[in-house]
Fold this sequence. Notes:
Radius of gyration: 31 Å
Structural class: mainly beta
Largest sheet: 4 strands, antiparallel
Region (Disordered): 122-146
Order of helices and strands: HHEEEEEEE
Pfam family, one: HSP20
Distance between the termini: 130 Å
Family: Belongs to the small heat shock protein (HSP20) family.
Organism: Solirubrobacter phytolaccae
CATH topology of the domain at 22-73 and 85-121: Immunoglobulin-like
Shape: elongated
Number of helices: 2
Protein name: Hsp20/alpha crystallin family protein
Strand order of the largest sheet: 1-2-7-6
Amino acid sequence: MAIVRWEPFRDLSELNRLFAPTAGAQRRWLPAMDLAESADEFVLTADLPGLSDEDVKIEVEDRVLTISGERTSERTEGKGGYHRVERAFGSFRRTLTLPEGVDAEAITASFDRGVLELRIPKPEQRKPRRIEISTGGPKTLETSAA
């Protein structure tokens, strides 16, 4: 038979863990983003719950697309009632390098129910130019003697 040491506060440590801040509450908030590609465009979708379109800033500079904003905390200091806080808040900034040739003026954005959608038209591919080769060798100019 094994001897087990009695620890009176062992059960309290489990209770304490329930009320301790979680790793999710301490980390910086970074919204989830998806990037899909179709034949004509890239579609970027970002989850921004609790934000409005006025809270989000979208910029393009030197082929770098930047989405930034801030989600503020809804709880106020001094007001009790919270037993656990897991929703992260704070400022965020996501960047994406665009392919060469993307027209920044053609990018469109929509915001609906906390979801931001950017449509980024693909740049037109440069088509190779075919140069015809003439046959028969170099032509000489005939001059007439006067």
